[in-house]
């Protein structure tokens, strides 16, 4: 085997590209449905949204590179996921990112937050896609391995989807975009390894992004696709030229012959190994109709991009590479692609926590202080400092910006239709019980879409775990996938694309299991979408779902009591479905003025966020007959929503809830300028807002003593 | 009235601008590519926002040297209305059509949020549909919007009432001198502004505050 061949096999068979540890389990996920046009296996999933349109979306991690070089690592993460979307013929219309950093007092955290956020903004803003949602969490378990998971969605016509499957023998394989350089050589292999003290030496494996070239590439590709010249297209992402060429050939049952002397290069004397493994960004490989070649070339010249015929399709199912007139690689293509090894790794059933009875958990001395502490905790507070660095309004279709339950973007060309986007997971839940945690991530995603009035359509998953060779970590992966599969099947909420990131561990210390679920929903009429910001004076505040009772693995326990134990709340899928269907129909029938889902921090945080978003106070009474006050306020029980209902509809609304079998409780009324819990406390909105908003900007400016969580 | 939108690689609010002009004027603007040396006979030329040529070298610097900008300059000299928004403003400054410079935001960070904008001068062709002193809500989204000009230049802008838009109610997002958000040239036919009125023209945007700017520039104002 030649050195180049060895590099090619290593690139194709590493964990990042081959999914060899996870494939067996990923197959158990539900991936089909009446609206699914394309499930996993292509660059992104495709889901029908009616009227001949479809939404194309995927989420992908760029964890390892972002830790080594935060700006470029995060920037190229966005660049890669955007390319996955427009490779399929879709114009990107929305993005999100789920970010997880180490403890605020870790010396690297501030630098990483600053670099990652600037990198995402630097790329997405220049490319011109609105960022409409995301997650931000801090936990010392991510000290050595941050998570940067980027989601993008695009719009396409259902009959004009492009894939990587090459067809036809003797057709030109065309290279488009930026010139190949030495950046990112071996990036995918780096991303499949655990970190150790040599991490600084890995910086050259991180790619460098150029959003200007990507924007030109987007416009050129869409023009080229519209011209009818494209037979197959694949972007050069992980493992660059190698992976894209192999995928095109393997999917089409063809061979590919590449002539590296024709590849546009940025520097002289690059070896075949370097050219095959370079991860220079903003490059595409296509198979074009020969008769349209001149037209295609003209489009690329107009946008100032390189265009070169670098090979051809063959009928021998071989992947052969020629450099300097010599054959430097000649390998069977199927074995490289689909037939990569598959492991059935040893795994161990994770242990379970014994349940925590709420009445045995100490009550806080000062409820007012407890609420402010949870509301202002780093992982709970407002991420405004982050998303104000992202262009959230470009394209003119953003109806709901980040900060709410789900972002909403209008569908261009339709008067009323819109899409909703959210991404969710609670790693503490997944750590305590990967199965319930996986289920909960799906349920919360589904609930967030429901809370804005959307019909949940489908999800993409980004599974971030530690070392799969450790049976305990493998057990987390297996059980989390089981939980995700069960919830997705129940909700008919298929997984249409995804990404697995393993080996997120440094010197033996793993991240908590973090399977991020990003969901897309369809809003039939954006004028009737709900948000937490619509409450009006005199409205009734109504809790849908039962009273809070579950404090295990809660934000309250962690922030106020300094404890990290107990099982996560369990998810009753039937109750989720029933309560969600009721909420969605109430929103569409204009029976509620505001809606917010209950999640981390429970009722107390949901009330505070609703009051802040609506810019108006509220007064509630809680009786402690069913459960203690701290459990009612901070319990993280599932299948719950907070809604505000106009006075004249309140009776009607409650009767409907009763009829639908949805538990409800009228908590109080909207009005004033403080959050008031009768007989307990009153917190003025200004104080509430300061607690929610101030920590992150102060921390990033270095003005605040970093706190633990 | 007819309008044209200048297209340069790397601009990305061109589609927003075309959509806004189409919705307000009832017909789409013509588009003019970077290499064109002539602009068709129109009444309004718009240079939209984005990151032309990646903002490499300096925001607007490369764009200002492209053939189509010479054509914009000729139109401006003939008295045709020219509007530059965000990167368009940066380009018009680099092209010498407006005074001053737009530096990196004082925070050194990109900023996207809604700000308050006061109409300081309602007697320009771009603001005639507003009232002087009127305060609007409008989004900004930029990295380099921190306007600066020398003392004499600032005095001229102030004395001639050429500061058309100012950030109001303490919402200056970028450290701009004298809260400057938008200025016109001496003849009053070239307006450069950092905020994005094209993203504030319909209920889905949360309001229609930006609409009157286009209605003014297109002379669609009831007499």
UniProtKB/TrEMBL annotation, chain B:
<comment type="function">
    <text>Part of the phosphoribosylformylglycinamidine synthase complex involved in the purines biosynthetic pathway. Catalyzes the ATP-dependent conversion of formylglycinamide ribonucleotide (FGAR) and glutamine to yield formylglycinamidine ribonucleotide (FGAM) and glutamate. The FGAM synthase complex is composed of three subunits. PurQ produces an ammonia molecule by converting glutamine to glutamate. PurL transfers the ammonia molecule to FGAR to form FGAM in an ATP-dependent manner.</text>
</comment>
<keyword id="KW-0963">Cytoplasm</keyword>
<protein>
    <recommendedName>
        <fullName>Phosphoribosylformylglycinamidine synthase subunit PurQ</fullName>
        <ecNumber>6.3.5.3</ecNumber>
        <ecNumber>3.5.1.2</ecNumber>
    </recommendedName>
</protein>
<dbReference type="InterPro" id="IPR010075">
    <property type="entry name" value="PRibForGlyAmidine_synth_PurQ"/>
</dbReference>
<keyword id="KW-0658">Purine biosynthesis</keyword>
<comment type="subunit">
    <text>Part of the FGAM synthase complex composed of 1 PurL, 1 PurQ and 2 PurS subunits.</text>
</comment>
<dbReference type="GO" id="GO:0004642">
    <property type="term" value="F:phosphoribosylformylglycinamidine synthase activity"/>
</dbReference>
<dbReference type="InterPro" id="IPR029062">
    <property type="entry name" value="Class_I_gatase-like"/>
</dbReference>
<keyword id="KW-0436">Ligase</keyword>
<feature type="active site">
    <location>
        <position position="198"/>
    </location>
</feature>
<dbReference type="Pfam" id="PF13507">
    <property type="entry name" value="GATase_5"/>
</dbReference>
<feature type="active site">
    <location>
        <position position="196"/>
    </location>
</feature>
<keyword id="KW-0378">Hydrolase</keyword>
<keyword id="KW-0067">ATP-binding</keyword>
<keyword id="KW-0315">Glutamine amidotransferase</keyword>
<dbReference type="GO" id="GO:0005737">
    <property type="term" value="C:cytoplasm"/>
</dbReference>
<comment type="pathway">
    <text>Purine metabolism; IMP biosynthesis via de novo pathway; 5-amino-1-(5-phospho-D-ribosyl)imidazole from N(2)-formyl-N(1)-(5-phospho-D-ribosyl)glycinamide: step 1/2.</text>
</comment>
<dbReference type="GO" id="GO:0005524">
    <property type="term" value="F:ATP binding"/>
</dbReference>
<dbReference type="GO" id="GO:0006189">
    <property type="term" value="P:'de novo' IMP biosynthetic process"/>
</dbReference>
<keyword id="KW-0547">Nucleotide-binding</keyword>
<dbReference type="GO" id="GO:0004359">
    <property type="term" value="F:glutaminase activity"/>
</dbReference>
<feature type="active site" description="Nucleophile">
    <location>
        <position position="86"/>
    </location>
</feature>
């Amino acid at each position: 085997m030649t050195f180049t061949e060895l590099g090619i096999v290593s690139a194709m068979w590493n964990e990042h590209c081959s999914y060899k540890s996870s494939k067996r389990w990923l197959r158990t996920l539900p991936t089909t449905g009446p609206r699914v046009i394309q499930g996993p296996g292509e660059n992104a999933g495709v889901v029908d949204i009616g009227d001949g349109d479809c939404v194309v979306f995927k989420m992908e991690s760029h964890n390892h590179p972002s830790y080594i070089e935060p700006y470029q690592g995060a920037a190229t993460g966005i660049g890669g996921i955007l390319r996955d979307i427009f490779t399929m013929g879709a114009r990107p219309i929305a993005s999100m990112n789920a970010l997880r950093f180490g403890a605020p007092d870790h010396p690297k955290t501030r630098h990483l937050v600053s670099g990652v956020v600037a990198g995402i903004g630097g790329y997405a803003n220049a490319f011109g896609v609105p960022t409409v949602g995301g997650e931000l969490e801090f936990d010392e378990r991510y000290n050595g391995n941050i998570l940067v998971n980027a989601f993008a969605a695009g719009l396409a016509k259902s009959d004009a989807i492009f894939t990587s499957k090459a067809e036809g023998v003797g057709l030109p394989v065309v290279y488009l975009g930026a010139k190949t350089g030495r950046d990112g050589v071996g990036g995918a292999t780096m991303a499949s390894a655990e970190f150790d003290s040599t991490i600084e030496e890995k910086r050259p494996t991180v790619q460098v992004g150029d959003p200007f070239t990507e924007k030109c590439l987007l416009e050129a590709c869409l023009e080229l696709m519209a011209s009818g010249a494209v037979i197959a297209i694949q972007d050069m992402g992980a493992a660059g030229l190698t992976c894209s060429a192999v995928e095109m050939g393997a999917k089409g049952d063809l061979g590919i012959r590449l002539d590296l002397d024709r590849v546009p290069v940025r520097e002289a004397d690059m070896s075949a190994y370097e050219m095959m493994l370079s991860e220079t960004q903003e490059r595409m490989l296509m198979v074009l109709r020969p008769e349209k070649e001149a037209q295609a070339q003209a489009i690329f010249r107009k946008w100032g991009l390189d265009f070169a015929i670098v090979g051809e399709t063959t009928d021998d199912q071989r992947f052969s590479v020629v450099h300097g007139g010599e054959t430097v690689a000649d390998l069977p293509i199927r074995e490289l692609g689909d037939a990569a090894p598959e492991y059935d790794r040893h795994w161990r059933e994770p242990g379970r926590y014994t349940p925590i009875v709420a009445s045995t958990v100490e009550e806080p001395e000062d409820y007012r202080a407890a609420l402010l502490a949870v509301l202002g905790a780093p992982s709970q507070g407002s991420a405004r400092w982050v998303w104000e660095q992202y262009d959230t309004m470009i394209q003119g279709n953003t109806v709901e910006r980040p900060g709410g339950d789900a972002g909403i973007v209008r569908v261009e060309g339709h008067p009323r239709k819109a899409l909703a986007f959210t991404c969710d997971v609670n790693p503490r839940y997944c750590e305590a019980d990967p199965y319930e945690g996986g289920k909960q991530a799906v349920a919360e995603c589904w609930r967030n879409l429901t809370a804005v009035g959307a019909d949940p359509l489908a999800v993409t998953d980004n599974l971030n775990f530690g070392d799969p060779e450790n049976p305990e970590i493998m057990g987390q992966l297996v059980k989390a996938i089981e939980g995700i599969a069960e919830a997705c099947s129940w909700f008919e909420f298929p997984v249409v694309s995804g990404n697995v990131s393993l080996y997120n561990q440094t010197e033996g210390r793993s991240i908590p299991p973090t399977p991020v679920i990003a969901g897309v929903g369809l809003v039939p009429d954006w004028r009737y979408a709900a948000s937490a910001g619509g409450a009006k004076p005199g409205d009734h505040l109504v809790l849908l779902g039962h009273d809070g009772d579950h404090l295990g693995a809660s934000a309250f326990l962690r922030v106020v009591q300094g404890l990290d134990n107990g099982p996560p709340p369990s998810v009753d899928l039937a109750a989720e479905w029933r309560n969600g269907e009721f909420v969605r129909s109430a929103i569409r029938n204009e029976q509620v003025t505001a809606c917010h889902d209950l999640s981390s921090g429970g009722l107390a945080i949901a009330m505070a966020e609703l009051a802040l978003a609506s810019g108006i106070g509220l007064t509630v009474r809680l009786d402690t007959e069913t459960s203690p006050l701290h459990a009612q306020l901070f319990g993280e029980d599932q299948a719950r929503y907070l809604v505000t209902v106009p006075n004249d509809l309140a009776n009607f609304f409650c009767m409907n809830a009763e009829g639908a079998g949805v538990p409800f409780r009228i908590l109080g009324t909207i009005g004033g300028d403080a959050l008031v819990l009768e007989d307990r406390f009153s917190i003025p909105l200004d104080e509430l807002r300061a607690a929610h908003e101030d920590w992150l900007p102060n921390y990033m400016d270095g003005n605040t003593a970093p706190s633990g969580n | 009235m007819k309008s044209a939108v200048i297209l340069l690689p790397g601009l990305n609010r061109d589609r927003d601008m075309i959509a806004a002009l189409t919705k307000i004027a009832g017909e789409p603007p013509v588009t003019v590519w970077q290499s064109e040396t002539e602009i068709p006979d129109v009444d309004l030329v718009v240079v939209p926002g984005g990151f032309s040529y990646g903002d490499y070298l300096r925001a607007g610097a490369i764009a200002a040297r492209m053939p189509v900008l010479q054509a914009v300059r000729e139109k401006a000299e003939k008295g045709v209305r020219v509007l530059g928004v965000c990167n368009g403003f940066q380009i018009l400054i680099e092209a010498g059509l407006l005074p001053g410079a737009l530096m990196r935001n004082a925070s050194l960070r990109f900023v996207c949020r809604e700000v308050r904008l006061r109409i300081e001068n309602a007697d320009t062709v771009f603001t005639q549909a507003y009232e002087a002193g009127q305060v609007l809500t409008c989004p900004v989204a930029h990295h380099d919007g921190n306007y600066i000009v020398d003392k004499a230049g600032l005095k001229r802008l102030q004395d001639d009432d050429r500061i058309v838009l100012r950030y109001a109610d303490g919402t200056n997002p970028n450290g701009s001198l004298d809260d400057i958000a938008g200025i016109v040239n001496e003849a009053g036919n070239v307006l450069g502004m950092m905020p994005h009125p094209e993203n504030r023209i319909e209920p889905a945007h949360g309001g229609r505050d930006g609409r009157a700017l286009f209605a003014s520039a297109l002379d669609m104002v009831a007499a």
